């Protein structure tokens, strides 16, 4: 037995265990000024008001285990009634709260200690010592359980903690059903948008394909109109004639001019306007081939009008549309067999006369 401050310590050298006994155990340690161990095994303590005798074996540890309980529950510093049974339901706006607690114990209750845990928030027990309150802020919605346990002055914990189930509602914009609905809406909206976009692209592609088909038909019809079959037949006959005469030079020259003209006609037909230079080249090739076919039986001369706006860079609507002997006003040329004449190309805005 040893004195330590205002308490007595009982030490067991065999087990190396020690126990602390203070004035709460009935020992006048506060006013004691002398200790003596008697032959009977009793301990005598001299104090200001007398002498106390007791046997050390009569000292017993505190067997009482305090029972924890809540004294109040506050939401934003306002008292909230605790449910008699079941869980405590709070709105998501009430997620700032504090709890005050105590314990039922009659032996040295002021020395009781506490530990608490809000399951789902605290990872482990929070040992508060003699502090008798706990505070929580900004707790998200969900189900929680507040657990509280108490220990007596000797640190013996009550194995049965106090529990309080707490349910905090979740705001609608954080609820699982809201996010599920939002996700389904986004997926559905994405699917509808993709299908609409695919349909739109298909419509555009169909319109473009239809337009290209019609354009190809128009170009084909235009080429058919320009590529006069009689003219082509006459050219091929002329080439065949020179080949049969074994006149390879004229056959080659005629074939070269014919191929050049065949290339120019569709090339010019694709443009809304063509340069005067290209139009003159087409005209010259056509007249030269006709002159060769008729064995130079006519003379020709191409003149460009002297108008101020006429130049080789001027642009015209393609006029060498059909190499025939007809002369539509402003768009054709006139060549007749065994004729002597002059073809005149007008200035922009003028007609194209044919002199045969």
Care to give the gist of this entry?
This protein has 4 helices and 20 strands. With 356 residues, the protein is of the alpha+beta class.
Mean pLDDT: 78
Count of spatially separate domains: 4
Residue windows where pLDDT falls under 50 for at least 5 positions: 1-5, 319-356
Structural class: alpha+beta
Oligomer: single chain
List the helices and strands in order.
EEEEEEEEEEEEEEEHHHEHEEEE
Shape: rod-shaped
Largest sheet: 5 strands, mixed
Rounded to the nearest angstrom, the distance between the terminal CA atoms is 151 Å
Provide an overview of this structure:
With 356 residues, this protein is α+β, with helices and mostly antiparallel strands. The protein has four domains: 2-58, no CATH class; 67-168, Immunoglobulins (Immunoglobulin-like), CATH 2.60.40; 183-222; 229-355, no CATH class. Helices cover 30% and strands 27% of the residues. The protein has four helices and 20 strands. It has helices spanning 176-226, 229-244, 248-269, 276-293; strands spanning 2-4, 7-12, 17-21, 32-37, 43-47, 50-54, 67-75, 78-79, 88-90, 97-104, 113-119, 126-129, 133-136, 142-151, 162-168, 274-275, 302-304, 315-316, 342-345, 354-355. The strands form six sheets. A five-stranded mixed beta sheet has the order 9-15-14-11-12, with no helix packed on it. A four-stranded antiparallel beta sheet has the order 8-7-10-13, with no helix packed on it. A three-stranded antiparallel beta sheet has the order 1-2-3, with no helix packed on it.
């Amino acid at each position: 037995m040893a004195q330590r401050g205002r308490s007595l310590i009982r030490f067991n050298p065999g087990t190396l265990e020690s126990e602390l006994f203070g004035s709460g155990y009935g020992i006048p340690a506060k006013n004691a000024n002398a200790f003596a161990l008697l032959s009977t095994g009793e301990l005598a303590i001299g104090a200001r008001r007398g002498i106390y005798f007791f046997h050390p074996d009569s000292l017993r540890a505190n067997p009482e285990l305090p029972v924890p309980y809540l004294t109040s529950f506050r939401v934003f510093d306002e008292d909230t009634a605790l449910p008699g049974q079941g869980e405590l339901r709070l709105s998501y706006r009430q997620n700032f709260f504090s709890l005050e607690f105590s314990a039922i114990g009659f032996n040295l209750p002021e020395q009781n200690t506490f530990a608490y845990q809000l399951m789902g928030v605290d990872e482990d027990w929070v040992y508060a010592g003699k502090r008798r309150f706990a505070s929580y802020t900004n707790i998200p919605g969900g189900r929680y359980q507040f657990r509280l346990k108490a220990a007596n002055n000797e640190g013996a914990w009550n194995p049965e903690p106090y529990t309080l189930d707490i349910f905090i509602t979740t705001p609608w914009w954080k609820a699982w059903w809201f996010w599920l609905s939002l996700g389904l809406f986004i997926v559905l909206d994405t699917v509808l948008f993709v299908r609409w976009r695919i349909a739109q692209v298909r419509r555009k592609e169909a319109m473009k394909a239809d337009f290209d088909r019609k354009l190809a038909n128009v170009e084909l019809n235009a080429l058919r109109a320009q590529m006069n079959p009689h003219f082509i037949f006459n050219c091929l006959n002329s080439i065949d004639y020179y080949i049969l005469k074994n006149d390879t030079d004229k056959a080659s020259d005629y074939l070269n001019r014919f191929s050049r003209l065949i290339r120019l006609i569709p090339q010019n037909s694709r443009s809304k306007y063509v340069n005067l230079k290209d139009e003159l080249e087409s005209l010259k090739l056509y007249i030269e081939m006709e002159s060769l076919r008729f064995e130079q039986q006519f003379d020709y001369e191409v003149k460009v009008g002297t108008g101020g706006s006429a130049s080789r860079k001027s642009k015209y609507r393609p006029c060498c549309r059909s190499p025939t002997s007809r002369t539509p006003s402003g768009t054709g040329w006139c060549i007749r067999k065994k004729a002597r004449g002059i073809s005149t190309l007008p200035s922009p805005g003028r007609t194209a006369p044919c002199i045969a």
